[in-house]
Amino acid sequence: MCPVCGTILEKEDTVCPVCGMEIEPSTIKNNQTEPVLPKEPLKKKSSSNNKKRMLCIIIGIICLSAVIIILFAFKDKLFAIKENEPKTKSIEKTVDIDKKESPKDTDSNITKTEEPDNVVDATVYQGYWNIKGNQDRELTIQSITNKTVTFSLWYYRLDAVGNISATLDGNKADFMSDVDGLTFKGTLTFENDTISVSITESERLYMPIETMKFEEKHATSWELANDYADTYNSTDNDSVNDSEYDYNSSDSYILSDSSSRELTIADISGLSHDQLELARNEIYARHGRKFTNPTLQNYFDSQAWYTGTIEPEDFTDDMLSDIEKSNIQFIKDHE
What we know:
Layout: H1 39-73, H2 75-114, H3 122-125, E1 127-131, E2 137-144, E3 148-155, E4 159-169, E5 172-177, E6 184-191, E7 194-202, E8 210-214, E9 216-218, H4 225-233, H5 265-268, H6 273-285, H7 294-301, H8 322-334
Antiparallel strand pairs: 1-2, 1-9, 2-3, 3-4, 4-5, 5-6, 6-7, 7-8
């Protein structure tokens, strides 16, 4: 029998008539009539199986390599997805917390808005407030409502601004005046039965940038001549001559004899810087000199003894006496 195709062979056949397989001559041993199968077909069958195994191994290696390559290529995306999962949860929690807390914030804001503003008590602050010193000052609170305050500010013998209206914001009021074409700005603060006046911008010569604190309230006004004289006479300030410092006196001088004799330290002691400046210009004013500074001009125009006839550019020091020149320099050295 042919070992390849199974065709029955004759004993003398050496080649299979069907498949052409070579057949070794049969050898009969121990009365066996079947031919001995050749070794070659067995070798060929074993070789075929080995090839199949090798092919399977190669295919497996290729598949495994492909899987490893794919995993390596997409590992970053896979890890990113895993890392993003807890973050998403935390964001969701944060959003939930915000949603829960936002009503509380809204409630707190509403509560703040509903808190009442500090209301300035008119019965406490309305009236005359004074500061005593080298230059006496008076703050007059004319009227106060929940929204506005009207006041005037007076500097003894130097300057005054009246009927200033300002809007109250709690216990503060920002004010602005342009009387005489001069800008004058600041803030009033009402607190603990005192009034602070902070001047933040000023074009008025005798009302400089400063902060004043008014703590003394009076029943009458110092700005009125008689009231001021009574108040001033009640002090122990010996350097002040009452008749000389009468605010409403139309023939008053700061230094009445500065054109007739040389001044001494005793004459100017107790005078403020602003008063010294007026005293120095007073010497020029006696000769009818006009002033480019509107505050100075307004002040001397209020004096009955003053008549401005000479323009500033036409006035020369030759019009002054030697005593006057000496006193002008003396006052200037001590301003």
